[in-house]
Amino acid sequence: MQWLHTWAGLALGTVLFAMFWMGTLSVFDSEIDRWMNPASRIVLPEALAVDYDALRPRLEDLADEGARTALIVPPAERQPLLILRHSDSDGERHLEYFNPLTMEALPDSISLGGSGFIFPFHFRLHLSWMGIGYWLVGLASMAMLALLVSGLFIHRKLIAEFFVLRPKKRSGRLLLDIHNASSLVALPFHFLLPLTGLYIFFGVYFPWAIEQIVGEETTAVSEEAFGFVLRERADERVPMLDLNALISETEARWQARSGAGDRVDSIRMFNPGDRQGTITLAQIFAGDRVEMYGEVSVYDAGTGELINEHSHGAVRDVHAWLAALHFVQFDSWLLRWLYFVAGLLGCVMIATGFLFWVSARERRLPGQARFVDAMAAGSTLGMVLATAAFFLINRVLPVDAAFLGQDRPTLEVWAFFLVWVGSFGLAATRARAAWRDLCWLITGTAGLAALLNQLTTGDGILSSLEAGLYAVAGMDLLLLAAATISAIAAIYLGDRAVETSVRPATA
C-alpha cells in the first residue's frame, strides 16, 4: 500500500494537480468568462422576457446554409449573454453572442476564458490526439481513488493525526501533518469527484458497453437516455416556428406537472428549418435540485407537434444525479464555495505530498530529490503562475491582436503554456530558491492583472460592486488574495532559506 501510494502519487502528481487546480477554477468558470470578456459584463433585471423570435433572421440564414445543429443557451444570473452555438454542413462549430436586453449581436469573444479553456483543460488537458487527454485524466482519476484508499491504510491513526499540527518540528513532519489534514477534511469530496468524473466519461473508456447493446446505431443512446429525436434531412425548407410561444407552452406544462418553477435552459435544433428537423426544449440544470436533464420535450420543426416527452428511467436518474454532483450547477453559492475550498485543499494535499517525498529523501537520494523538487515546483506553483499569466495577458493584448496567423484567444493559450513550461526551466536551474521565485512572480502577475482590469475597463472593485458586477469584483478580490498569499509564502520561504544557510555555521 505504501509503495502504491508513493509511486502512483509521484508518477501522476503533475496531472492530478492540473486536474484539481483547473477543476477548482471551473467552479467559477462563468465568473471568469465575465472578467475576461468585458462585453459580457451585463446586469440582468430580475424578470427578463427574452424575445427569441428576434433570432429568426439569423436562424433562417443558418437554415439556408444547411446547418446541422443550432443550440440556443438562454441568459442566466451567472452567464448573462444569450449564446448561439451552431455547426455547419461540414461539422465545424461556431459561437455567436447576443445582448439579451436588446438582442443585438455582440463581437466575437476575445478570450476562451473559463468555460472555453480552463474547464476543458480540467478533463482533457487540451490534448486531442487520439483522445489521449481523456485517457490521461481517466488514469489519474483511478490513481486518485487508489491514493485515497491506500492513504487510509497507511495512516492507521489517521483520525488522531488529523488533530495534530507541529509547526515547530522539522519541515518533513509539518508537511506530513498538512498533507494528512488537507486529505481528511475534504475526503468525501476528493473521492466523489474523480469517481463521478470517470462515470461521466464511461462512453469514452468503455465504448463497447454501448456498442454491445445498440451496435452502430449510436443515435439510439441519445434518444433513449436523453430524449433527443434525430432524423435524416429531407432538404425541404419549412417556416421557423414561434419559439416564444413554444417555450411558454412547454414551461407551463412542466410547471403544472411538477409544481415547481421549471424553466427551459436549452433550445436545441437538429436540421434547423428542414421538414425533418426537430426542436428539443430541455432543462439541463434544475437549479434547485441536484439533477441534469430533468425535463425534455421534443417538437417537430415543421408542424410544431409534440413528438416526444422524455421520461428517463432509474439508471438515467442515477446518472443525472452523479453528473450534476460533478458539474455543480445548482443554485447554492454556499455549496459552490465549499466545492472551491475543497478543491484548493486537494491542491494542497497533492503539493505537500510532493514536498514530503522530497524532504524524506533529499539527504539519502539528493539527485532524485532534486529532480522531483523541480517537477513539483513546476507542476504546482508553475501551474498557478501560468494561470495568472493567462489572466494578465488577457488585459494586455489589444482586442484585435494577432501573431503568426494566431488570433487573440489562441495567443492567450500560448502564453499560458509558455509560462508553464518556463516555470519548469526556472525550477530546474534555481533549485529550492525556485519556490520563492515562483511565489514572487505569482504575486506580481496576479496583482498586475487586477490592476490592469481597472485601468483597461474601468471596472475596479468598488465600481463593479456599485454596478452589481459581483463576478468581476470577486475575480479582482481573488487575484489580490492570491497575490497576498504568494507574497507571504515568498517571505516565509526566504526566511527559511536564510535559516538553512546559517545553521551549519552555528552548529
- Portion of residues in helices? 55-70%
Average pLDDT figure: 89
Query: Can you write the helix and strand succession as a string?
Result: HHHEEEEHHHHHHHHHEEEEHHHHHHHH
Shape: globular
Radius of gyration: 25 Å
Low-pLDDT stretches:
500-507
Largest sheet: 8 strands, antiparallel
The side-by-side strand order for the widest beta sheet comes to 4-3-2-1-5-6-7-8
Q: What is the count of helical runs? A: 20
Calculate the terminal CA-CA distance, rounded to whole Å.
39 Å
Our estimate of the beta-strand percent is 5-15%
The total strand number stands at 8
Structural class: alpha+beta
What does this structure look like?
- With 507 residues, the chain is an alpha+beta fold.
- 62% of the residues lie in helices and 9% in strands.
- It has an 8-stranded antiparallel beta sheet with strand order 4-3-2-1-5-6-7-8.
- A hairpin with an 8-residue loop joins strand 1 and strand 2.
- Helix 1 runs antiparallel to helix 14 and helix 8 packs across helix 13.
- The radius of gyration is 25 Å and the shape is globular.
- It starts with a helix and ends with a helix.
- The C terminus is likely disordered.
